[in-house]
Design goal:
The protein is α/β, with parallel strands linked by helices. The chain is built from 11 helices and 8 strands. The strands form 2 sheets. The protein has a 4-stranded parallel beta sheet with strand order 1-2-3-4, with helices on one face. A 4-stranded parallel beta sheet has the order 6-5-7-8, with helices on both faces. Helix 1 links the parallel strand 1 and strand 2. The longest helix is centred in the last third of the chain and has 24 residues. This is ExoV-like protein. It comes from Methylobacter tundripaludum (strain ATCC BAA-1195 / DSM 17260 / SV96).
Length: 300
């Protein structure tokens, strides 16, 4: 199968999990020249895949980044990220089992000593526009770089007593590995729906907290993001000098908000029953997928 995942200008933990996890669960089947496109982790149910190719959906979600695809016989759904994706696609809501990254429960078994009382993981886009590493330094908060290698991010999540995260897969992986987490409302609202999609599969009553911008660039981009996206993009490309305008004052303001969240906002964790149910269902779907590959059911 052709393992499809999103890769932008920067590597992103959630997307890169595809290259780390799937070979550990299914070996020897990944062929980029194959006509079957495998859609695992990510908001990657798009409308631009070649209509003649087989699309195998194994936990992916619809994020609203493109129009809805036309679902025909060349789409095969084992499960999707959540009930919102299932509803949008017009498929059985029971297929909204959860984000495929929950399968990390079968890949990560080792124990890690707790080193960090609080960690913060921004969305990968915020690493370019904000001064979050500086903000974490001011508050003695461990900074988890969402663009770091998968193994590094996993170790830091496991070593944390609490993860505050703007990155959705910071929450998904923390929850799967039983590390309490606090969700942050994405600074860019376009990334919000997918959180509620995943949460719907685990019966999580999601109530994201809000943080303050950690740089003037971040504040300006967010101001124009909804009002005039072209101006926001212009600042993203040419406004990096704004990162150096009063960096300490803005970073400290962001720090104060993070510390307040860590002390006052209740941590989240899905119930053991919900996460085990989701994981067990995914393992059953994995067995089904392997059987289908053995029978040639994924071929024409």
């Amino acid at each position: 199968m052709n393992l499809y995942f999103y890769r932008g200008k920067k590597l992103n933990f959630g997307d890169e999990l595809n290259t780390w996890m799937w070979p550990k669960l299914i070996d020897g089947v990944w062929d980029q020249g194959n006509d079957s496109i495998f859609l695992g982790i990510g908001s990657i149910i798009f409308d631009f895949f070649p209509s003649e190719k087989r699309k195998v959906v194994f936990g992916a979600g619809y994020g609203g980044y493109t129009q809805l695809p036309v679902i025909d016989k060349n789409w095969k759904f084992y499960f999707v990220r959540g009930k919102l994706t299932a509803k949008a696609l017009g498929i059985d809501e029971k297929l909204g089992i959860g984000d495929a990254a929950i399968l990390l429960r079968s890949c990560v078994k080792h124990k890690v000593e707790k080193k960090y009382k609080v960690s913060f993981m921004p969305h990968w886009g915020s690493t370019s526009e904000g001064n979050w590493e500086l903000a974490c330094q001011y508050g003695s908060i461990n900074y988890i770089d969402p663009c770091a290698p998968v193994e590094v991010v996993l170790e830091q999540i496991l070593a944390s007593e609490l993860v505050i995260t703007e990155a959705m897969h910071g929450a998904i992986v923390s929850d799967a590995l039983r590390v309490p987490w606090i969700p942050i409302q994405p600074l860019s609202s376009i990334h919000s729906m997918k959180w509620f999609d995943w949460a719907s599969a685990l019966d999580i009553d999601l109530k994201p907290s809000q943080i303050n911008s950690s740089s003037l660039l971040e504040a300006v981009v967010l101001f124009f993001h909804e009002r005039n996206p072209k101006i926001a993009d212009k600042f993203r490309r040419r406004g990096r000098f704004l990162l150096n305008v009063a960096p300490d004052a803005l970073a400290q303001r962001a720090t104060e908000r993070l510390l307040a969240i860590s002390k006052n906002d209740p941590p989240c964790l899905s119930s053991d029953t919900s996460i085990e149910r989701s994981h067990d269902q995914m393992l059953s779907k994995l067995d089904e997928l392997i059987q289908d590959m053995g029978r040639g059911s994924l071929n024409y």
